[in-house]
Amino acid sequence: MQILNQTRNTILAQKAVLADTAGSRLVGLLKHDSLSDKEGMIITQCRSIHMFFMKFPIDVIFVDRKKVVVGLVRNIKPFRMSPYFWRASCAIELPSGSIDKTKTVLQDQIFWE
Fold it and tell me: Whole-angstrom Cα distance, residue 57 to residue 111?
């Protein structure tokens, strides 16, 4: 699936997977050694992430139910935890540097299909 930042007219991910079950949300990107450019993961029912046992840093965009950006975490490294974003509904995990590269900011409208 593709993830787009409609506000900036940029592609956040061309190949994204949806983690929408308890098992897939728990595992997330743990089995990956890296994310290539334009890959990503959408984790549903998510207001915070942890990086325990991850092998690489990532950027994370938190969106609310209307897919509006309510939180940004740049370059979160392994064995760290993100802040808790009360208004978030989903987390979008992307390669490190993606937030700055796409100029994504709070209140941007995100879309995926």
Answer: 24
CATH code of residue 73? 2.60.120.1140
State the residue range of the domain holding 42.
3-103
At 11-39, the pLDDT tens digits run: 999 999 998 988 878 777 777 788 888 89
Task: Give domain status of residue 8, yes or no.
Answer: yes
Q: Is residue 9 part of a domain?
A: yes
Residues 6+ positions from 70 with CB-CB distance below 8 Å: 62, 63, 64, 85, 87, 88, 106
How far is CA 71 from each of CA 23, 36, 61, 89, rounded to the nearest angstrom?
A: 24, 23, 6, 11
pLDDT at 62: 98
36 occurs within a structural domain: yes
Domain count, the chain: 1
CB of 76 closer than 8 Å to CB of 60: yes
pLDDT of residue 24: 77
pTM, whole model, 2 decimals?
0.94
